[in-house]
């Protein structure tokens, strides 16, 4: 008996949940949720069929003389469930018809729009226009974002260019100062090298002279020119030869200015020799 009461109580609770489901199903919009509601109703119908079958089996197993009150309550509940089952079937059929009508209406609208688009290329439906307008707005928004990003990047690059330009100007000033200093050092180096060569020449001349004087002192020096006249003749010949070489170097320097720096040292050496020899 307790089992039957528990089954009846559970059937009563399930009937309440079914009422709530049917109520919320009716409140939902059929065009959007017809398919989901139909599946839910089909599931509920299958559950109720199982529960009705279970109730019939329990009714057949219950003794006819005992529990008449509970049996009558169960019969009433079973009748009520059958009625609810029929209502659910009707509601399912109605939702299926609504869904079929909605699909047919949608296909009709689509076919009509395709026909218009084939006959008139300039014809746009409201949906197409809305889609194109949304797409254009999205593209405009993307272009604005890209423009802002490019503007920011350009500003950053301009600032970087300004910093690099300032740094370059500073480095150029430092380079110019370094080049000027290098030119000064090169000029000083050239002067020192010329002085070194001059000193070296003088040193060699003095060493040669010392050697000759030592030979004279020791009585081993052999005079190249025994007379003063022959010495003067050789002196004049050497002076003329150096003068001729100096004139040739001057002419070469005028004709080939690119060798002027190299020939200048030789010309200075010849000039110093001429000065040491004195007038012819």
From TrEMBL:
Example of a GO biological process term: heart looping
The question of whether Coiled coil is a record keyword is answered with yes
Judging by the UniProt lineage, the source's domain of life is Eukaryota
One GO term describing the cellular component = extracellular region
Keywords assigned: Coiled coil
Q: Which residues form a coiled coil?
A: 168-195
The record's section on InterPro entries has: CCDC40
The question of whether Coiled coil is a record keyword is answered with yes
| Alphabetized PANTHER family for the sequence | COILED-COIL DOMAIN-CONTAINING PROTEIN 40 (PTHR16275)
| The protein's name | Coiled-coil domain containing 40
What is the organism of origin for this protein?
A: Rousettus aegyptiacus (Egyptian fruit bat)
């Amino acid at each position: 008996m307790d089992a039957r009461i528990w089954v009846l109580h559970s059937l009563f609770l399930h009937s309440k949940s079914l009422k709530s489901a049917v109520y919320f199903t009716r409140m939902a919009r059929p065009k959007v949720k017809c398919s989901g509601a139909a599946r839910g109703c089909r599931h509920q119908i299958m559950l109720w069929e199982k529960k009705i079958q279970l109730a019939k089996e329990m009714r057949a197993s219950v003794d006819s003389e005992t529990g008449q009150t509970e049996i009558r309550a169960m019969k009433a509940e079973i009748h009520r469930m059958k009625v609810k089952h029929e209502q659910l079937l009707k509601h399912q059929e109605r939702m299926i018809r609504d869904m079929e009508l909605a699909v047919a209406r949608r296909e009709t609208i689509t076919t009509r729009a395709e026909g218009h688009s084939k006959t008139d290329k300039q014809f746009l439906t409201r949906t197409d226009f809305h889609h194109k307008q949304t797409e254009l707005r999205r593209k405009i928004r993307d272009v604005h974002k890209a423009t802002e990003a490019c503007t920011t990047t350009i500003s950053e690059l301009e600032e970087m260019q300004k910093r690099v330009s300032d740094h370059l100007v500073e480095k150029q000033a430092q380079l110019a100062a370094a080049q000027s200093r290098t030119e000064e050092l090169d000029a000083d180096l050239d002067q020192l090298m010329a002085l070194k060569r001059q000193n070296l020449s003088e040193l060699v001349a003095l060493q040669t002279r010392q050697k000759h004087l030592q030979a004279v002192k020791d009585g081993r020096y052999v005079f190249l020119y025994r007379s003063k006249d022959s010495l003067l003749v050789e002196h004049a010949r050497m002076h003329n030869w150096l003068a001729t070489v100096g004139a040739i170097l001057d002419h070469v320097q005028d004709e080939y200015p690119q060798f002027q720096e190299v020939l200048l040292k030789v010309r200075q050496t010849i000039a110093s020799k001429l000065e040491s020899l004195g007038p012819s």
